[in-house]
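Annex B. Sample input.
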Amino acid sequence: MRLTPFFFSTQHFNTVPVDHFHGLSPDQMHRFFHFTFDSPYLATFPLRLDNIPQAPILTLFNLLVDGISEKGLTATAKGNLPRNFCRQAARVFLGEEEYQRWSRLGELRSELEFMEMHITRLVAGLVALIRKYKGKFIHSKECRKLLVEQGQAGIYPILFRAFVSKYNWFYGDNMSDIPFMQHSFLFTLYLLTRYGGEWRSTTFYEEMSLLAFPALIDQV
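Annex B, continued. Sample output.
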């Protein structure tokens, strides 16, 4: 006897793994999107890492913290990081040779031209690790406490969560927002855990995402 879908409940379908979800069920995918940080049986986000990751945002955050030091960094009239600091930080982050190539048409003139640092400063501000006080950028008490007690292993999870859940990925690109792309970050990480053991092009992950969510094309 051949059973048709008529004999199965909606709940049954929602809990059965789907091929184009790469082993996830519709119910699990729903939680990936809507309960990202509240589904520990699917994904855990530690408050402190066992090791310090080699992440660009940590390098930039360290440069920002060092630049602020105990004295603070005086904000520009537009409320940005000072130009000289941005130039020095860019040289360290990019390396002298790359900085010279990058600035061949002219020296860096503002924080907004060093977008990586600009984003880092915004993300750190969203979680109050860095804030402005009397016209200066300073470390918050929480930031100083974390650096002393946990170091970068405790700072990175906070920056990560702020970047994926509070910072708008489409800020500054002059294009319409596509929130779905940001909300699907956990599915992207899931794909990396499954297929990231060997190098694959970005096209591979793009195709996997479009196979799972074909309606995304209409949003684009």
